[in-house]
Amino acid sequence: MELTPIFLTLLGALLPAFLWLFFFLKEDAHPEPRTRLIKTFLFGALMSVPALGLQLFFENSFGGRVASFMILTFLFSAIEESAKFVGAYGAARHSIDFDEPMDAMIYMLVAGLGFATVENLFIIGSTMYPLQLGGVFIMGETLIFRFIGATLLHALSSALVGYYWARGITIGEEKYFVVIGILVATAAHGIFNSLVYGFQTVNLLIPSLFLVGVSFFVFKDFEKIKK
Q1: Cα(31)–Cα(193) distance, rounded to whole angstroms?
Q2: What CA–CA distance (Å, rounded) separates 121 from 170?
Q3: Under-70 pLDDT residues of the chain
Q4: How far apart are CA 162 and CA 168, in angstroms?
Q5: Which stretch of DSSP H or E encloses residue 168?
Q6: Are 195 and 71 spatial neighbours (Cβ–Cβ below 8 Å)?
Q7: Cα-based distances in Å from 103 to 16, 43, 112
Q8: Separation CA 166–CA 101 (nearest Å)
Q9: Euclidean distance between CA atoms 112 and 108, whole angstroms
Q10: What local confidence, expressed as pLDDT, does residue 1 receive?
Q11: What angle do CA 22, 20, 151 make, to 5 degrees?
Q12: What pLDDT is stored for residue 27 in this prediction?
């Protein structure tokens, strides 16, 4: 097996997540230990496996009916947002490193980017075999769309869950606010996926503008938690 396509696939899968990770970690005034961040990233990545299993189960249950598309879109979004929360919770919640509300947003972001990396791995990998010039160009195009689209979406939706999680921790209503956060993130995730599907034959400007709007709220959330 050639090493070049494997290396390019891994690079393409990791690069979008690492770039956004570097960007968002600057919001944390008290940086988390690298070992804890790596563990959370890996937990988020691992949670993609049971999430995919559940998605396949429900997809087969609905039988591929067109009328079920919207239901599956939001159901899949709920599964992914819940899976990322479980990954972040399992990796960090009961550690000594989780010592302030901001940590909820940071660890959710890291878990979300781990989850997104596995998606990138499969999607980008499918463009690389066999290794041809055309495949490299397709991978580059896919990488750009994953960076400004799905990978950023996972970061933002995870941050939304993290914000509500942080609020719940602050006022002693953790479980209630986590559920609210997952519902809000599911709505944002599902709307984005619906926009991508609806406008893919025209352009991706509308879904991208939607993410810009979500980003505005996420950065406002960061500021609220800092205060």
Answers
A1: 32
A2: 36
A3: 1-9, 11-13, 63-67, 124-148, 200-203
A4: 10
A5: helix 150-171
A6: no
A7: 22, 16, 14
A8: 5
A9: 6
A10: 44
A11: 155
A12: 83
Tokens of 20: 């956004």
| pLDDT for the residue numbered 17 | 85
Look at residue 225 in the predicted model and tell me its pLDDT: 87
Both structure tokens of 196: 């991508």
Q: How far apart are CA 75 and CA 182, in angstroms?
A: 12
102-125 and 48-62 are packed helices; what angle lies between their axes, rounded to 10 degrees?
60
Rounded distance between C-alpha atoms, residue 126 and residue 12, angstroms = 12
Res 72: pLDDT: 85
Nearest to 87 by CA among 39, 41, 43, 54: 43
- At residue 68's C-alpha, the angle toward residues 115 and 118, to 5°, is 15
Question: Is 154:84 a contact under the CB 8 Å cutoff?
Answer: yes
Residue 120: its pLDDT value, please? 81
Q: Report how far apart the first and last C-alpha atoms of the chain are (Å, whole number).
A: 53
User: Six-digit token pair at 117?
Assistant: 């990396």
Count how many residues are written for the chain.
227
CB 79 within 8 A of CB 92: no
| Residue 42 token pair | 């890996």
SS3 label, residue 215: helix
Half-sphere exposure of 18 (CA within 13 A, CB side): 8
Rounded to a whole number of angstroms, the CA Rg of the chain reads: 17
